[in-house]
Design a protein that fits this description.
The structure holds three protein chains of three kinds.
Chain A: H1 8-14, E1 15-28, E2 31-44, E3 48-52, H2 59-67, E4 75-83, E5 86-87, H3 93-99, E6 104-107, H4 111-114, H5 121-132, H6 137-150, H7 156-159, H8 169-181, E7 187-191, H9 199-216, E8 219-224, H10 227-233, E9 236-241, E10 244-250, H11 251-256, H12 261-268, H13 308-312, H14 333-339
Parallel strand pairs in A: 3-8, 3-9, 6-7, 7-8
Antiparallel strand pairs in A: 1-2, 1-4, 4-5, 9-10
Helix pairs in contact in A: 5-6, 6-8, 8-9
Chain B: H1 2-29, H2 33-37, H3 44-54, H4 60-72, H5 86-121, H6 126-140, H7 143-157, E1 170-172, E2 175-177, H8 182-215, H9 218-225, H10 230-267, H11 273-282, H12 286-314, H13 316-320
Antiparallel strand pairs in B: 1-2
Helix pairs in contact in B: 1-12, 5-6, 5-8, 5-10, 6-8, 7-8, 8-10, 9-10, 10-11, 10-12, 11-12
Chain C: H1 8-23, H2 25-32, H3 34-51, H4 53-56, H5 98-134, H6 136-150, H7 154-168, H8 174-189, H9 191-206, H10 209-216, H11 221-229, H12 234-258, H13 269-277, H14 286-313
The chains are: A alpha/beta, B mainly alpha, C mainly alpha.
Chain lengths: ~350, ~325, ~325
């Protein structure tokens, strides 16, 4: 499959979310950090984009920037974010607030702490619905019940007046998903939605996300460090390293024929039964801290393919290398064959 | 729920029994009650007669039981100093203290919670920082110094408000109130402010700390992510969660207002039970001390009990958890 | 290790240790906090002044021979109209030099404060350790007592203890005993905090490997508590002690002000304020003002220091 995502116009027209050259900065005493540096990607309706990387790679920061929930002093320092073609990175706070929950839903990592323990799930659902949709109290309640039914809460009508602690972890994450989706957003940002759950429940939640995405045509940004979740759920995958996007492509392509050495290393170190790796390898070293990024390509100290060029020049942008891997010496089908 | 309430009531009763034991021990062993009641001219017969009359020849548990019996009926004997029944003196003095405590408690609660929320929401604002700095000074200031300062400014220098007493009071049944006369209300202002200020500062700092903690929680972030208004987030989501721990501690704070009234009443010569207690200590008037101790214990234990039940009402997790014992 | 008083090795080690202490986060945050530095300096000056009172004070307020009633009510820094003497902070009704009475009063306030906190600390730490380490009924009784006492404000408990102790002491000894009774009253009213914190910390430490190991090699309970657990719970104890000191000084001042503390023959700052209050309406403001100012400086600076200490030792709270 060849990637010709080059024509920006076509991609933009279909994209629900379009991020261009996004830079997030955190000014600190020791200088300005860039947890997200020049990231660009699109998510289309009905598509799940997996964003993957080690902790600290800037995955969550990117998601928080999109929904406008960066904790000060972190701020968007450059680039654009468009939702359905409309810029949302520079709009007034109150308009952005109205978008949240309405056009963009968000799912957090830990369902045990995402729900207010002192309000019933019905109260939390209806307050969200009433905030965003012009409906009456009773209609909001009906919609709340419907939302719970849709995410697979049994006996939803009876349980609407229950408090969060009366649900199990998996059920609570379903409630969280219902909350994120109850105002029918176009985009859902799921930040590690399965990390805090039991393995058996993880699969159910992933299946639920996939179903909702297909049925409703929601664009989903699935942030995770779990390659298994990516393989299971994502249509396309974006790999992040030290705040930069290093590889972006269809999930099968990236997982089986990674072009960026980091992605390849990540795959080799991930136990994925479906991909049939015999032995796990690890990437030497650790991701550099944001205040101590090496010159050139940030991955070069750990990269076995690195050359002179990588030490001196920042890697090419994704657009410049036909949208796949931001690398001077990407793995190509030929090199892969010769290596095999 | 019922089991929990019963257990709390049982615990409260136990505390009162222990306090009763302390009060009784004071009666019995601090100084000789007979010495205190009979003058210098006494015969051995007098002593024996009084000993039997007071039941001092009975075994200790019997004496304690009789003391409790009397105490429950409000009978604490005669004040050594005034020679009148202690209960009569207490009832006479109580309205003054309760009115003072009520007004300062109201003041402390309203401003404490209000300013606490304000300083938490406007965490980095100039006003919030100024209030926090002032409050630290306020906590460090001994109450009586604040009282003296207020007297100096408003009574001595400006002459706006009286420096001592209750002003004119109106008797309604057995209750004397200062709320109905102008001089009564004027006299109330300085003492109530003095007494409430310290509690207000504590409540404010507590509310602020708790609220900041709550505002860091995931569910607040999630509420933001759902696009709720700041006002809904601050007052519906954050405040309710803040109030759970605040209610417990605040309840106890308000209870201690009655105890701290001792200091304020002395500074302003406010004719309440606190001033009575201080005078009792100065003159070693044991029956008054013991009765005051019992009275204030009943109030404290009662407030504690109410606070616990309130806690129970506000936090749904406790209503279902069978292991409610962890909340004490 | 040798016992040579200052062998070069030892000296070098001491220098190194000082350097390490100076460079530590703790010292750094101290140097960085102007509030901490200022309050530390104020506390140090006040304590020094109190300790050196007999040297600094121009008069001995407790020696009737040096008093001259003619000097009564002399305003600060003005010549007395009868004797021509000048007093830095004026004199009180009996002609005592206010500056001197403050120095001596502070001595008593600080002595009572420190002793009471020491008493509370010894009782609290011991009971806390014992409760956590022995458990069972001992623990229940200790902690229940703590709970019941905590129901009542410390100042009320202190008043009560003072009242009872006064009742037990024969009247002729009451003034003499007052200071000791004060220490006892404040100390007994304040042990609970220590006991609770030490118990909590001990319960945590008790199950750590090193304590288990010490138990396995047959150390006695007492030895384990003193040598292994105690040093590990001292940090929170130090914080509570600082805060308790401010509270104890305020408690002492309050009790003395209320007339149930230090007697006029041995006045503490609180007693001085009580005396001074009588002259507030007649215009002799300095008799009240300067003792109040001294108490304020003392309480405020110790409190600010304690507040800073709590934050410095508990970075999570910031």
């Amino acid at each position: 499959m060849t990637e010709t995502m080059h024509s920006d116009d076509r991609a933009n027209a279909a994209a629900v979310l379009s991020v261009r050259d996004l830079v997030v900065e955190i000014p600190t005493r020791a200088g300005t950090l860039r947890p997200t540096d020049g990231v660009s990607y699109d998510i289309r309706a009905g598509e799940i984009l997996g964003v993957v990387g080690e902790s600290g790679a800037g995955k969550s920061m990117t998601g928080n920037a999109v929904i406008g929930l960066l904790d000060p002093p972190a701020r968007i320092a450059g680039g654009e974010i468009r939702l359905n073609g409309e810029r949302i990175d520079n709009i007034p706070r109150d308009r952005l607030r109205r978008l949240r929950g309405d056009r963009i839903g968000m799912i957090f990592q830990d369902p045990l702490t995402s729900l207010n323990p002192l309000l019933t799930i019905g109260e939390q659902l209806t307050e969200t619905i009433l905030e965003h949709l012009p409906v009456s109290q009773s209609e909001a309640l009906e919609r709340a019940v419907a939302a719970l039914e849709e995410v697979g809460i049994p006996a939803a009508r009876a349980r609407i007046n229950s408090y969060p602690h009366e649900f199990s972890g998996g059920m609570r994450q379903r409630v969280v998903i219902a909350l994120a989706l109850c105002a029918e957003p176009d985009l859902v940002i799921a930040d590690e939605p399965t990390t805090a759950l039991d393995v058996s429940v993880q699969a159910q939640i992933i299946a639920l996300l996939k179903r909702l995405c297909r049925e409703r045509g929601v664009a989903v940004m699935l942030v995770t460090h779990d390659m298994g979740v990516i393989a299971e759920a994502a249509d396309r995958v974006a790999v992040m390293y030290a705040g930069r996007l290093v590889e972006l492509g269809p999930v099968r392509e990236v997982l089986t024929r990674a072009r960026h050495p980091y992605t390849a290393g990540l795959m080799a170190s991930t136990p994925l039964a479906s991909l049939g790796h015999a032995r796990l390898k690890q990437i030497p070293g650790a991701m550099p801290r944001l205040n101590a990024l090496p010159a050139g390509c940030p991955f070069h100290p750990r990269c076995e393919r690195a050359g002179e060029r990588c030490r001196e020049n920042p890697p090419p942008t994704l657009a410049a290398c036909e949208g796949r891997a931001a690398c001077w010496f990407p793995l190509t089908p030929e090199t892969e064959e010769s290596a095999a | 729920m019922l089991a929990y309430v019963l257990r709390r009531v049982f615990q409260s009763a136990l505390v009162l029994l222990i306090v009763g034991l302390v009060a009784f021990a004071m009666f019995r062993f601090v100084g000789d009650p007979i010495d205190n009641m009979l003058g210098q001219e006494r015969t051995q017969a007098d002593v024996e007669r009084l000993r039997t009359e007071l039941g001092l020849d009975q075994p200790f548990p019997v004496q304690y039981w009789r003391f409790l019996e009397q105490a429950v009926q409000g009978n604490f004997g005669l004040s050594y100093r005034q020679g009148r029944p202690v209960s009569e003196i207490l009832v006479e003095r109580l309205p003054a203290t309760l009115e003072l405590a009520f007004v300062s408690g109201l003041f402390a609660l309203a401003f404490g919670i209000g300013l606490g929320i304000f300083t938490a929401i406007r965490k980095r604002g100039f006003a919030a920082n100024a209030i926090m700095t002032l409050s630290l000074i306020g906590v460090s200031l001994p109450t009586f110094l604040i009282g003296i300062l207020l007297i100096y400014v408003f009574a001595v220098e400006l002459g706006w408000l009286p420096s001592f007493g209750r002003g004119e009071v109106v008797a309604i049944g057995g209750w004397t109130t200062g709320f109905l006369t102008e001089s009564g209300i004027k006299a109330l202002i300085l003492p109530a402010f003095t007494l409430g200020l310290y509690q207000m500062t504590l409540i404010m700092r507590l509310v602020r700390t708790e609220m900041l903690e709550v505002l860091r929680q995931d569910y607040i972030r999630f509420a933001r992510a759902r696009g709720l208004r700041e006002r809904a987030i601050n007052f519906r989501h954050a405040l309710k969660n803040t109030m759970v721990p605040v209610i417990t501690i605040t309840g106890l704070q308000l209870g201690s207002i009655i105890a701290f009234a001792i200091i304020t009443e002395t500074v302003f010569q406010w004719p309440g039970v606190g001033l009575l207690f201080i005078n009792a200590i100065q003159f070693v008037d044991i029956p008054v001390m013991a009765a005051y101790l019992m009275m204030i214990s009943v109030m404290f234990v009662g407030i504690n009990l109410i606070v616990d039940l309130l806690y129970f009402a506000i936090d749904p997790r406790l209503r279902v958890d069978r292991s409610a014992g962890k909340v004490t | 290790m040798t016992d040579a008083p200052l062998s070069p090795v030892r000296e070098a080690r001491a220098v190194k240790r000082f350097k390490r202490a100076w460079d530590s986060d703790f010292a750094y945050s101290f140097r960085r906090s102007p509030v901490a530095v200022v309050s530390f300096v104020v506390v140090a000056i006040l304590i020094l002044a109190a300790v050196l009172a007999p040297v600094i004070a121009p008069h001995d307020p407790f020696d009737p021979a040096t008093l001259n009633l003619m000097n009564g009510f002399t305003p600060p820094m003005t010549e007395n109209q009868f004797t021509g003497e000048v007093f830095l902070l004026g004199t009180d009704d009996q002609g005592r030099d206010v500056f001197s009475t403050i120095l001596y009063g502070m001595r008593i306030s600080l002595f009572v404060g420190f002793s009471a906190v020491l008493l509370a600390m010894v009782i609290g730490v011991t009971l806390g350790l014992v409760a956590a380490y022995i458990g069972g009924w001992t623990e229940t009784i200790i902690m229940r007592t703590a709970d019941v006492q905590l129901t009542f404000p410390a100042i009320l408990v202190a008043m009560l203890i003072f009242g009872i102790a006064k009742g037990i002491t024969p009247p002729e000894f009451r003034d003499q005993m007052a200071i000791w009774v004060l220490i006892l009253a404040i100390g007994l009213s304040d042990w609970v905090q220590f006991a609770r914190v030490v118990r909590g910390a001990t319960l945590v430490e008790k199950n750590k490997e090193y304590v288990q190991a010490a138990r396995l090699i047959g150390r006695s309970r007492g030895a384990i508590m003193l040598r292994h657990i105690l040093p590990n719970v001292l940090n929170p104890v130090l914080v509570i002690a600082t805060i308790s000191l401010a509270l104890a000084i305020i408690a002492e001042a309050t009790l003395s002000f209320l007339g149930v503390g230090a007697p006029p023959t041995k006045p503490s700052l609180g007693t001085l304020i009580r005396i001074g209050q009588e002259f507030m309406f007649s215009g002799e403001w300095w008799i009240l003002f300067f003792p109040a100012l001294a108490l304020l400086a003392l309480a405020l600076s110790i409190n600010l220091l304690g507040d800073w200490l709590r934050d410095a030792l508990n970075p999570r709270l910031r």
